[in-house]
């Protein structure tokens, strides 16, 4: 970033620290397979009036609930769910969620593929020349072990998921290994694309404050073309096919609510026969990728590690 912005590393570090301390940004990470997992699902959880806070509090502590978004209706939560197995996901959807106090109904959309995911979306704050100056991760040393101990790999990815800017010395102390082993392991995870780093910004402060989830049922013959076309829209952060009431799920961040109908007109034009589409406007995100947010949408220091 220093080369891209022509700002000293020290100045950038101070600016990032201020944003971090204000709860506006977190640099985190997750195993790269999450967005393509067969045990990933999106659930629309309908609630009794007045039970949103209780349901949110319970689900916030659930590791399998990666992200929680409250809709404008005030009686619906959209939960991004990740389970360690198919049976665990079935239990979550059929038993755990319906039995929560205040839950009236659970509509599940089982992910079948991901064409675009959040870590590949950016704010477009840099022009192409500036972005080109940002280098990729350094390759591992020639002497670095390519195969990591499974228990160590899981522990390291969990630590990076909480804060990917944790100093190597701290990680080495907490995990009981040398700093060099930490450097080598991180390089291996990134270079082999086993682990994905991302810097998440609170959307209200990002310049893209309006968050909307869409659930779309597209004629099967058009599904692939419509899904691919959606990935080209700059507002679209996630696009995935699904099995459920909708066969296409996607979420968008918009500059303002006024462009909503323009976007939806573009989306409608993608389907020749007029697909069924349903929107859920998000007013509050209380959990994102395991990180708990406060009522203002800012990151707190609380983190519930997802399944690894």
From TrEMBL:
Positions in coiled-coil regions: none
Domain of life: Bacteria
GO molecular function, a single term: DNA binding
Keywords: DNA-binding
UniProt xrefs under InterPro entries: Dimeric_a/b-barrel
Protein name: DNA-binding Lrp family transcriptional regulator
């Amino acid at each position: 970033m220093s080369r891209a912005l022509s700002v000293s590393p020290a100045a950038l570090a101070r600016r990032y620290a201020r944003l971090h301390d204000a709860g506006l940004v977190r640099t985190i990470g997750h195993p790269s397979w999450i967005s393509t997992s067969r045990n990933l699902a999106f659930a629309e959880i309908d609630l009794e009036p007045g039970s949103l806070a209780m349901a949110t509090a319970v689900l916030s502590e659930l590791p399998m609930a990666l992200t929680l978004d409250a809709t404008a209706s005030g009686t619906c939560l959209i939960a991004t769910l990740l389970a360690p197995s198919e049976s665990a996901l079935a239990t979550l959807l059929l038993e755990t969620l319906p039995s929560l106090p205040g839950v009236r109904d659970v509509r599940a959309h089982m992910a079948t593929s991901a064409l675009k995911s959040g870590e590949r979306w950016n704010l477009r704050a840099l022009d192409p020349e500036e972005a080109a100056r940002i280098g990729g991760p350094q390759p591992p040393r020639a002497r670095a072990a390519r195969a990591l101990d499974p228990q160590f790999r899981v522990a390291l990815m969990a630590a990076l998921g909480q804060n990917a800017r944790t100093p190597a010395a701290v990680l080495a102390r907490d995990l009981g290994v040398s700093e060099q082993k930490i450097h080598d392991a991180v390089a291996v995870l990134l270079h082999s694309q086993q682990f994905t780093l991302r810097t998440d910004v609170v959307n209200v402060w990002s310049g893209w404050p309006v968050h909307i989830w869409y659930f779309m049922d597209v004629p099967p013959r058009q599904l692939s073309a419509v899904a691919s076309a959606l990935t080209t829209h700059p507002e679209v952060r996630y696009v995935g096919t699904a099995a459920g009431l909708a066969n296409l799920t996607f979420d968008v961040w918009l500059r303002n609510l006024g462009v909503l109908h323009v976007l939806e007109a573009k989306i409608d034009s993608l389907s020749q026969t007029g697909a069924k589409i349903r929107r859920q406007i998000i007013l509050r995100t209380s959990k994102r990728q395991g990180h708990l947010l406060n009522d203002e949408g800012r990151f707190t220091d609380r983190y519930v590690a997802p399944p690894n």
